[in-house]
Every structure is written in structure tokens, then in C-alpha cells.
Queue: 4 jobs
Job 1
Amino acid sequence: MNHFMLPLTTQQSHEVTWGNATSDATRYGNYAMEFLINEILKYGGLRRNLKAKVFGGGKVMRQMSDVGKKNCEFVVEYLSAEKVSILAHDLGSTYPRKLIFDPLNGKVHMKKLCTIHNDTIITREQNYQEMISKLKVGGDVELF
């Protein structure tokens, strides 16, 4: 499972370390997807068995650009190019989502947060965006 903020980066060198919040895997879709697939294959997963469930891409903050739409387009195109079928999806709109994924049975429970009684989600998203924009990264990514 991954959550990225931007679809692509064109930088040539990156450090992608699992569990390291300062990695490009937390920022850019192209690195997050490559890293996730590489980790699955490294631990014995077979490419032919890969399936995806894709959620998100909502334009949660009106004053921000619609990067969610770009993320949706990216992930659908990426999975198609990698021949990974999408079993379920809920993309776009203006609502944030709460997801619970059960890795034992593959089920995803999703709730659209249609009403927000406080600014917690918006504040978290703004803080996260500010944090990742300040990160410096370096190193290599193994692409397959």
C-alpha cells in the first residue's frame, strides 16, 4: 500500500528506503509504485499475480491545484503499462477518504468523508505537503 502526493519526478538520483518518511516513495507516484512492486517481488511475489485496488485523488482543498486528477491519471496509466489489473477503484471527486486494508484477505473498506466537522484533515494535508517539500533526498532506485 502506498500514498503519494505527486505523480512524477524527473530527478535522476533518489534514496528510497522502506519505512523512511524522507524518501521519494512518500512523494512521487513513479517511485512509490516502482518501490512497492520491487519490494513485493523481492519477497517472493510473482508479477503475474499482481492486482491493484486504487483509491483517492480527491481535490480536498479548493485553493490547491488539482494534483489529485493527475495522480489518478498517472496510476491508471502506470498500472495499465505494467499489466496490473485494477480490481476496485474510487478516484477523484472532492472528498477525502478513509481506507482500511486487510492484507490477509485483500479487502478494502472505504469511507468518503463527505462532511468535515473540523479542519483536522485539511491541516494534516497542508502540514504533510509542507514537510515533504522541505526534504532532501539522494541515492539510487533499482528499476526493473
Job 2
Amino acid sequence: MDKIIEARSIYFSYDGEDALEDVSFELFREEILGIIGPNGSGKSTLLKIITGILKPKSGKIYVYTDRVSYIPQKATSFKTNFPAAVEEIVSLGRLHKAIYRRLTQEDYEIIDSALEKVGMIKYKKKKIGELSGGQQQRVFIARAIANQPDLFVLDEPTTGVDITAQTQFYKLLGELNKEMHITIIIVSHDISTVANEVTKLAYLDKKLHFIGKPQDFYKKILWPIEPEELLKG
């Protein structure tokens, strides 16, 4: 498989305090990477470096595509009186590089297709603030799809969403990964949920303490002592 991200010894600090220390990893196309770790561990900082919002203090980050969609924390939280319609929100996925141009017929077809994929086409004229948290989440995924990304980056997207919506959300991500060949990075606090849905798992606490298969994380990090060693005691 081709690499889509290569990070080499990334360091980053805020006001002299290290947020990331010597972070190195590779991600290949069509993988789904889950990043977990405690609060303040640098997870959001790493996503911002991957998406180009922040530059590392030292080290190198190579992202081998310019087709990246990013959903930051709390991006899907709207007040009930927010006036924008669903279709308008999704259209921003087509205008991100040329916000003053007119939408074409092809753009509208891509927008409708994105809404179809997330099951929200019947809500396209509805105000975004009138939707539930789970529905708003799907609209923002549609906006990301409309950008036709190679890489989809999400920062704690299931915060405040009920368990049913979370299950549907991860199922949708899996479908997008398989059908559209999108590489996905997702930050989450829910170890048990995200570990079941990703192909690769990373544990970050300023340093990258683990990256690999989810089943190996459970074995090496959560239960590092082999059963036969316990029997010896």
C-alpha cells in the first residue's frame, strides 16, 4: 500500500511546554487510525499538524495528498436558531478553495450524492440548528464527502451523541472507507468503541507510546503480563 502520512520525530510546544515529543509514525492509504489518550495528551495538536493548521516546532510531517477534510471538536454544535440550511453547510465542501465562485450543476449533484450517502437528502432544505446532534454529525460528514477527500480527519466527533447514533456513525465511516477508499483518522476518548472500528490504534500521551493493531494494544498495554507468567507466581 502507498503511504498517505509520514511523521518524523515531531515536537510541538505551547508557551515553552511540550505538547508533543518525538512523535513518528506512518499511515497507509485506506487505513482507519484511531488515536486515544488522556486529556492534554496532544491528540488535537497532532491532528492540527497533520491538517497543516499548525507547524511542528521540529521534525517533519509529509501528507501525500492535498485532498484532506477535517472536522474539529464541537464543529457540529449549533443553536436551534442558526439560519443555514443543510444544503448550504454541505456546499462549503465544494467552495473551500474558491469561496466566491458560483456552484455548478456538477457541484449540486455532488452535494446531493453526499447527502444520499449519509441518509440526509430529505433534510437538505431544513435548518441545521433544527436537527439532532446525530443528524448534524451526518451533515458534516456529507460536507467532508463533498470535498471528495483522500484523507478524512475527525476530532472526537461522537462527543455528546447517544450510543445508537455512535454505532450508526462508525458503521457509516466503515462504509465510506470501503466504498470511497478514504483514509480516516479519528480521535476518541472511548477506547472500547474506537478499538473495535479501526484497523490501527495509537496511544498518545505527548509521546507515541503505541501504534499498531488494536488487539496488540490490549495485549501489550492493558495486559502486558502473559498468563503463564501469572501462573509462575
Job 3
Amino acid sequence: MRFSEQKKLSLHENSVLSNNELISLITGIKDFTIIQNILTSADNSLKNLSLLSPFELVQFKGIGQSKAIALISAFELSKRLAEERTNAMTKINNSLEIKDFMTGFFTNAICEEFYIIYLNHGHRIIRAVRHSKGGLAETAVDLRLILKGALDCNSTTIVLSHNHPSGNVNPSNEDIKITQKVKTAAKLMDITLLDHVIVTDHNYYSFADEGTL
């Protein structure tokens, strides 16, 4: 199965292309049977496919190193685009908006990552930075670096957010302790901790909404 050069050139309408066609464009693979075998092995999930390493990809018939790198590069560009789009939202009003903002940052993350969103007094986003990246179940948090970041960009309000790759949205005892430590330390410097939002693939937990902030 192949599609026309005209369709290839109409990439501004790429929403009409199937996953098979897009992967074919990225990798140059013409045999759709090969592509479908790869997708089937990933349960037809692009997220699962994006988690495969170059070594795992080259195990498939028709996938060499260059094609594997092309596919992985496409997924990385997609992740960066999602981050740029989330940064376009300039104001935070509630926990749902925090979750929506952070979802792009956590796309395809397989380890815990801890982010700080720095806001001005009108709750407009100044910047969001990854504070740390850990293992499957935890990540390190440094109070001094968090507060230094706020002072460096004149932020008066901060939001904490991290992901739970396990899918369990409930905060751990360590999550609770960290939240209280940051809140107490920030208050001493007239900086408000607005919320701490834990994000999973299908849910989120807001310390502010749950009254645990």
C-alpha cells in the first residue's frame, strides 16, 4: 500500500494521514506490513511505540539504525512541540489548568520528574523548569534551588508538579513532607505555594483541592 506524492506534499493536512502513512513518511519504509507489525507489537499505541529504544526498534525487520533514529527523533520533536504549546497558556486559574499545562511535559516520561512553575502576582506563568529527574518511584527536591529560582525571576507564587509513572495518583508520605517544607520555606520569603499537582496518564491529584496543602 502506498500513497501519492501529492498527498505527501500536503502535510498541512496531515490529520488525514493514518499512523502507518506518517511512520512511512518519517522512516521511508514503503512496506506497510512492516509498519503494521511494529504497531501491533506496541498494542497499536503510539505512546508504547515512543518508549522503544533504538536497540529494540532495530530488532524489527526493515528497521535499520537510521530509520530507528528518525522515528525516535520524530517522537522527541513531538514532545518538544507539546511543551511549547503548553507554554503558550500564560495564566493559571485552577488545578485542572495546571494539570493540562503539565501533561505535555510528562508525555512519555518513564521516571518521576519534578517541575516548578514560577508565576507572577497575577498567576501568569513566568517559566516552568524541571527541577529534578529521578527513578521509577521518587526524585530529589532541593528547597534552596526552588527558592533561588523564584528570586531569580521575581516570582511571587509557585506551583509544584510531578508525575507518578505507576499510575497511582495518591501522594506518598514523602510528597506530603516535601509540599509542607516548600510551603513553609516559601512563606518566609513572601512567596506563595499555590498548589502541588501530581499527574498520571489518566488522572491528577491537587493538594489545594484536597485540602492537604
Job 4
Amino acid sequence: MFKRSVLLVMLVCFLAITGKAQDGSVNNTSVNVSAVVPESFELTSWIRWAKPGQDPYEFGFSGDASAIDFGPLEWNGDLGIWQPTKYFTVFLLARSSGRSYQIKQTSTGLFSGTSNLNNSFTVTPDYVSDDEFSAGQPQGSIPAGDSYGTAGLAASGEKVVYDSGTGQSRIVRAYYGLSTGEPGKPGEAISGDYPAGTYSGSVSFTLTLK
């Protein structure tokens, strides 16, 4: 009697398994998936120097910099002014999680005692489509609804460097130099009457949501 019971159970199990395989039914299951994209609000920057008339990445005529340091100026006898031997580009990259933003700059000016070069220290915002987020990945044309600021004196109050209505991350340039007094461009040239000395100051950048 005991042996028959065991055999019967085994037979029922076999039939049940065989029946499930033959009826073509499918047993589905699911797994939940989630991810969190952190909110970002960040402004990063880097600086390059270059010879006048050269691109900030021109091989042999440019390099990395840690500050805007014009160093000793050179006398241009033809124009009768002091001129820098290089200019500087501050590259700015904002991340705002797709929210509209502005990048602004202010400057303390350049002072040596009571003298200053504030009327000669200039900033010129720019956007270059070939600037790359990473090697071989240019940023492309400026998005519709975005704009960059106009050239002017760096120490003339708060200036807009970039205005983004789209909230897209973009690389914007801010060129810093000393005016040569060229017509149509901001600033005054540094004449031979300026007091000698080391002029110093700072530039600050601010990222704000619109």
C-alpha cells in the first residue's frame, strides 16, 4: 500500500509538469527600474593666454594660464602707447539642469596706489561653435534664444557675459585685454603719462537663474 501511494504521487507530478510544457502558456515577471539625475547648478572656468591676433588654442602662440597677468607692457613707439604682449581668454561653462540662466562678470579694476587702469581694461564676450565639450565634440551653433554680451570696460559695473533662455550647457568666451585706443573699440590707450607701477585687481563671475 505504501509503495502504490508513492508511485501515484510521482505520476501525478510528472503529468502536471508535462501538461504545463505542452499548453504553450507564458509566465511573465517584471522588475522595477529607477534612476535619479541630480540637480546641477555649477559654473566652471579655465584660462588661456595667446599672442595678439592668435586663437587661444593656436599651437606655439598660446598656453594655459592660472591668472590674467599681462606682465611688463611694451612701448609702441609708432603709436606712443604701452601695449601688452598677450591677451587672455576665460572660458566659462555653466550647468543648470535645463533652467534659463545668466553668466555675469564684475571687476575690482586694476589699481596701483591711487592710480588705475580701469579705462583701459576691457572684456569682450564671444561664442565659438568649434569649442569642444570633449575631444571631437564641438558645441555647435549658439541655441536660438541664447545670446552673449557686448564688449566694454571690465570694471564698469556688472556685465552680462552670456544669457541662456534655453538653459543648455554652453562654452562662452570672455576675452580680456588692454585697450589700444582703436576707433570703435572700448577703452583708452595707456599713454606714456601713466604712473609706473604694478597694477592689480580681480575679476569675478556669477551664475544666476533667470
